[in-house]
Amino acid sequence: MPQFILKTRQNMSAGRAPEISALPALFMRRKSIPAYSEKGLGPRLPDTKKAVLDLLEGEELSGFSGVGIAMPGIVDPEKKRVLGLYKKYEDSKEMDLEGWCREVFGLPAFLEMDSKLALAGELHMGCGRGYEDAVMMILGTGVGTAVSLGGKILRSRNYTAGALASHIIVNLRGAACTCPNRGCLEAEASGWALPGLLRRHPGFSESGISGEEKLDFRSLQKWVLRKDPVAEEVLLRCVEVWRAGILNLIHAYDPQLVILSGAVMNFQGLFQKLTEGIERCIWDCCGPVVIKEAEYPEDSVLFGLYYLVRNGGVI
């Protein structure tokens, strides 16, 4: 589900980042509702409205200055429009979310892509503090990416620069992606791609993981720990693809810092597998590159939204 945040005028006017110890106070009230992304965003708006109003517990909306919305696709933050999504809330491309927020809440809306917000959140409040040139790779259902250069989230004429690195082709004869191409990084190694990776393995029917009700990274970890050869080979394939993605980001954008985030990073030992020896594959002219796990993987998007609304739509 796209993430929403309302910012109070008091927080907006503070003019400085809150202390790290005070961060939980920013989000004392929160609520999650089912995504149902395949059904579109329009049918979810009534429940979204109810969830927000329930969170307010009767508090007047006049005390708030804006609504921040994180979308899982390319966004024009100036026109406040969704430009590109595949297989998720595709109806949002035709929606006026700014108009909806003004009609329902009487507040302006500020939109941005979720991966860009996650990077902004980590740069301002997490593991990226003190860095200006950074890239982020988020491993989850899909693969999200974002880039910061000179302390600013990278934007291009169509707002895609740095945000579509998961659709760099890593296998010319690879699997069909959710986008119009084949062999994209995301199609070769991601949460949604994993069931296909497993089922296409010639030994799948004889593997213990074939009996799992749900083919996800949690079940993959279970069978990797049991030394199941199919599970181990599929994990190795994913690691190879993700390492290629990390190197592509480094060589494309020359960052000081690479941030790895997303639910898949909970996989036991994955950070070490992704980073061990990778410095030997980086061009020496790139200098040292630091690789870290996100400090706030669950909340970095919300922190990014905080800054988006506070700064009037700029991160």
UniProtKB/TrEMBL annotation:
The signal peptide here is: none
Pfam families per record: ROK (PF00480)
Organism's domain of life?
Bacteria
What InterPro entries does UniProt report for this protein, alphabetically? ATPase_NBD, ROK
Looking up SUPFAM superfamilies in the UniProt record yields:
Actin-like ATPase domain (SSF53067)
- What family does this chain come from, according to its entry? Belongs to the ROK (NagC/XylR) family.
Protein name (database record): ROK family protein
| Gene source species | Candidatus Scatomonas pullistercoris
